[in-house]
Amino acid sequence: MTVSGEVLDGVSATTLWTLHNRGTEAKRSDGVIRDPWAVTLFDAISYDFRKFGKPNQSHGLRAVAFDAATSDYLRTHPKASVVALAEGLQTSFWRLQRAGVADQLTWYSVDLQPVMALREKLLPSDERIVPLAQSALDLSWMDRIDDSHGVFITAEGLLMYLEPDDALGLIRACATRFPGGHMMFDSIPHWFSRRTLTGLKLSDRYVTPPMPFALSAEEALALAGRIPGVRGARDIAMPPGRGLWKVASHSRMDHIGFLRRNRPSITVLEF
């Protein structure tokens, strides 16, 4: 089956950008991620993916980092609920299933209706997956979550597209509603956010949507003392990639203050 990706626009269309990077990486023999379903989606969606520019390792490495932290939580909370906010065309569920940690979980997939319709057409249904066609900012999704065995919330590639008050409000609401749960998200640095606000071109045919919310690694960790209910925060290192990506992820680089302040970050909050 082949479907058009043109049904997505605005921020929703950025899931095609991340799919371009992840799917292309998964096709490589030396790719940083093994993701058969990403390859299937990439091949099944008719779209001008080349307008996103040359593919790179960034989103594949980010997905690997999210998988590792989610897996760690599921090993100690095998019946937990995993809530994938603004899931887009991520295929994390099947990667975790292949890793053997998804047998008993309940997976809540939250995104807008056009994205959920694509997922329904192209990805297999599973009784463990609960689709919720709505915005992550429509907090009624919280009423659907079974929190009796733990909750792990992912916001992969989401918060940067929100206004700061909305992003922090979402974290605050999750901390209040799911004590004992965890929330994982990625952040862009302030300099990158400023570039998107003036129009960041990936090619002569594509400008990214604005990304108004930014946090340095230290600012993300400081949320533990800033937002009620957030009792701990951990910075998650980006996995090593190939070439310059491997150099950039070296732990020694993080001891250089300028580089640490200006790199993307991934954070796990404990409620």
Descriptors:
271 residues, alpha/beta, Rossmann fold, 7-stranded mixed beta sheet, two-stranded parallel ribbon, 11 helices, 37% helix, globular, EC 2.1.1.-, transferase, Ppm1/Ppm2/Tcmp, Class I SAM-dependent methyltransferase
Write a compact overview of the structure shown.
The protein is α/β, with parallel strands linked by helices and 271 residues long. The chain has helices at residues 14-27, 36-44, 58-76, 92-98, 113-122, 164-177, 190-197, 217-221, 223-226, 244-248, 257-261; strands spanning 3-4, 45-46, 81-85, 106-111, 129-133, 151-155, 182-187, 201-203, 206-207, 232-235, 265-270. The mean pLDDT is 95.
Describe the structure.
The protein has 271 residues and is α/β, with parallel strands linked by helices. The chain has one domain: Rossmann fold. The chain is 37% helix and 17% strand. Strands 5-4-3-6-7-11-10 form a seven-stranded mixed β-sheet, sandwiched between helices. A two-stranded parallel ribbon has the order 1-2. It has a two-stranded antiparallel ribbon with strand order 8-9. Helix 1 packs across helix 3. The protein starts with a strand and ends with a strand. The mean pLDDT is 95.
